[in-house]
Structures are given as structure tokens and as C-alpha cells.
Amino acid sequence: MPASPSSSAMSPGLIVLVLSLLLGLQPIATDLYLPALPALTSGFGAPMSQAQLTLTALLLCFGLSQLVWGPLSDRYGRRPVLLVGMSGFVAASIGSTFAPSMEHLIVWRAMQGAAMGAGVMCARAIVRDLYAPAEGARVMSKGLTGLGVIACAASPTGGLLSDLFGWRVSLMALAVFGALTLLVVAWRFEETLAQKNPRALAPSTLWGNWLQIARHPTFWAFALLSTASYGGLFTFLAASSFVFIRVLGLSTTAYGVVMFSMSLVYILGTFLCRELLPRLGLRRTVAVAGAMTLTAGTSMGVLGLMGVQNTWAILVPFWLFMLAHGVHQPCGQSGAVGPFPQAAGAASALSGFLSMATAFAMGGWLGVSLAGIGQGRGSVLPLTNGLWFWSVLIALVAWTLVQRHGEAHSAPQRVTAPAR
After folding, report:
1. Rounded distance between C-alpha atoms, residue 230 and residue 322, angstroms
2. Where does 77-189 have alpha helices with state H?
3. Is residue 329 within 8 Å of residue 123, measured between CB atoms?
4. Half-sphere exposure at residue 150, Cβ-oriented, CA atoms within 13 angstroms
5. Which of the pair, 60 or 409, is modelled with greater confidence?
6. Which residues of 327-344 are buried (b: 16+ CB within 10 A; e: fewer)?
């Protein structure tokens, strides 16, 4: 049985702080450097498609690495995996700062993503270690509120650092955040895995657990919900700096403010999640958020097709998208690992991999679609059409799969048991 919150030596506040820092690695690694991405691209004299690889390579390795970190954390525990992963994140961040070429930067960013996978994967598993599934969504929403606070600071800080000191200082800020997270983990974090599985890395156990997870309809319902919602967010992250700065003419500092507002609305969404869950229940909460998402994506898509190209035509609908995103992510991330208390690391890893593989594929499409911006043929359509697509997909998952299989959210699924 997973430990209860009261059996952990860590206080609830410390648990939320650790979750916030670990989950915050992802927006720090993306949002903080996004304002500097156009300047970085020009500084290296690189094409737009290559610049996109600094983001997509990070996310692909982030997703793949979780498939390794997950079973490792089930075997050895969350703490040693976190210490190794955070050390690697700091080292890769320093390497990125001093990269002599775009090719070197892409390699360092890939290594950074692989190390980051340990932190984010363990955060989701820690919630399952300490809390029952029903409570897990509320606790995850608190951690994601912390992520939102970090994201609020990340983009304005990145824009300001890039304007004042250059893009390399923005990348160095990632190393500082990673070092702070490593310090907190090393100093205060205590192991949350009550019973390590000595056979977690055995091939038969690995395949058995993967198959059990992959066959569970509740896993797919919630994993696809969080994957589609992250697909929409990634579309905005990957395209917005070029659209807002190159097409709509915003400064990097103003773009940082735009990203700040996006993160602030996301925080409100996590509070909305905690308000709706006890009143409406899980399935109805997700259904309401699905309606919000579809309204946001359709509004943005229609305005884009009508030729309305200004900041507010994108930003206002995206605020509604992010409000719903603050509901979908805690429900999706906790729901995907909920049925697997003895293999939370593996379930978290597979869910994370799906999100990052989707982001990598979307990044490839955006790299081609945005190429015209670098040649003076600016358009908001790659951004608005992409978000419209994801909004429709999110609503379909929220209204079908989650409604059919969400009731199994709190029913643990038997997986390969640890040796006695």
C-alpha cells in the first residue's frame, strides 16, 4: 500500500515545494529561454528549423528518458534518481550556456531534457506514493500551481536577461534554478517509495508492467487528456515567440509579459480545478473544462482564418485555453498513474513519454510551417490552426474516454508484485 501523507516525515508544505520545483523544471527549460530564441537564432546565423530543434530535441529526450527513469525509481527509489538527474541537469545547463554553435547547443539541450525527465517523472510518482488517487488530483493541482508561479517568473525574467545581458545569460539562469532544486532535494527530501521493487528492472517485470499499463483504459483516458492538453500548450510555446515578436512586432520584454499573463491564468485554472472537483466530481469537471478548451480554440482559429492578426485576437482565447489547461493537467497526470500504486514510476514515465513524443512531432511540423516568418512572410495561422486542432482533440477525449473510463480512476490495477 502507498504511504499516507501522515506517514511521511516531510511536512505537507515541503511536499508541495518539492513538487513545485520538480514540475517547474519544464517551464524553466522552455519558457525562460523562449524570449531569447529569435536572438539566439540570429546570433548563430541558423535557420528557423534548426532553432526549433533546441526545443524539440530537449522534449524528445525528456520523454524518452522517462521510460528509463521510471523503472529505475521503482527499483532504487525516488531520491537517488532525483540526485543523479538534477546533477545532470545543472551540468547540461552550464554546457548550453557556453555552446560554441547551434549544433552543440542542440546536443546540450538534448542532455538537459534527459536529465529533466528524472525530476518531472518522480514528481508524478511521489504524488502516487503519498496519496490515494482521489486526493492525488488536488495535491497535484497544488504542485502545478507552484509550476505556474515559476512559469510566471520565467518568461519575464528570460526576456529581461536577454535584453540586458544577452541570450547566454538566460541559459545560465537554468543552471541556477537546477542547482537550487538539487540543494532542496539533497537537504530536505526524504524517500517516499514505501516498498522498492527489486525486480523492477527485470525484463519480465518491465514488459509485464508496460503491458498492464498499456491495456488499462483509465490510463489511456487520462494520459491522452494530458497529452492533448500539453500538445496545445507546446504549440503555443514553440510558435509564440516568432509570431508575437517577428509577426506582431512585440519586444522581447513585452513578449515576456504575455507569457507572464498566460502563466497567471494557468494558476487560476489550478485553483478552479480544486474548486470544481469536490462540487462536480472528476468526470464533470473535465467535461466543463473541455467545453472551455473547445470555445477557446475555435475562437482563435476562426479569427485567424478571417485575417485578424493582432495580439489580443490570440491572447484572449488562449487565456481561456490556459484556464482549462489548469484543470486538465492535474486530473490527467494524477489519473494516469492512479490505478498503479506499485508501478507509479513506470506509469508516470509512459504518460510523460506520450506527451513529449507528441510535442516532438508537433515541433517538426511547426519548424516547416514557421519557415516563412524568417523569410518575411509572416502569418499567425500555424499557431492558431494548431491550437484549434488540439482544442477539438482535447474536447473529444474529455467528453468520451474520460466519461467512459473515469469512474475507474480510484481503482488500483494489479501489476507485477515486488519480490517478498
Report:
1. 10
2. 78-97, 102-130, 133-165, 167-188
3. no
4. 28
5. 60
6. bbbbbbbbbbbbbbbbbb
**289-319 burial, b if ≥16 CB within 10 A, otherwise e?**
bbebbbbbbbbbbebbeeeebebebbbebbb
Q: Inform me whether the pLDDT recorded for 44 exceeds 90.
A: no
Residue 362 has a pLDDT of: 80
CA–CA separation, 40 and 44 (whole Å): 6
Q: How far apart are the first and last CA of the chain?
A: 14
The count of other CB atoms within 10 Å of the CB of residue 215 is: 10
Q: Which of 281-290, 340-349, 363-372, 408-417 has the highest mean pLDDT?
A: 281-290
What is the mean pLDDT of the segment spanning 54-80?
87
State the average pLDDT for the chain: 83
pTM over 0.70: yes
Report which DSSP code applies to 15: H
CA 135/CA 413 separation, integer angstroms: 17
